[in-house]
Amino acid sequence: MCGIVAYVGYREAYPVILKGLKRLEYRGYDSAGVSLLDHNGLQVYKKKGKVAQLEETLVGQALPATIGIGHTRWATHGEPSDRNAHPHRSASGRLAMIHNGIIENYAQLKKELQNKGYIFHSDTDTEVLLNFIEDIREKNECGLEEAVRIALKRVTGAYVIVLLDQENPGTLIAARKGSPLVIGIGKNEHFLASDASPIIEYTKEVVYVNDYELAILKEDELILKNLGNEKLTPYIQKLDLELAAIEKGGYDHFMLKEIFEQPHTIYDCLRGRLDAKSGQIVMRGVDNHIEALSKAERILMVACGTSWHAGLVAEYIFEELCRIPVEVEYASEFRYRNPVIHPGDIIMAISQSGETADTLVAIEKAKEQDAMIFGILNVVGSSIARASHAGAYTHAGPEIGVASTKAFTAQLTVLTMVALRIAYAKGTISQERYLHLLNELEQVPAKVETALKTEEQIREIAARYADARNMLYLGRGYNFPVALEGALKLKEISYIHAEGYPAAEMKHGPIALVDETLPVVFVATRDSYHEKIVSNIQEIKARKGKVVAIVTEGDELIRSLADETIELPACDELIAPIVNVIPLQLLAYHIGVQKGLDVDKPRNLAKSVTVE
Ligand code: F6R
Question: What is the distance in A from the centroid of ligand 1 to the CA of 428?
Answer without folding.
Answer: 32
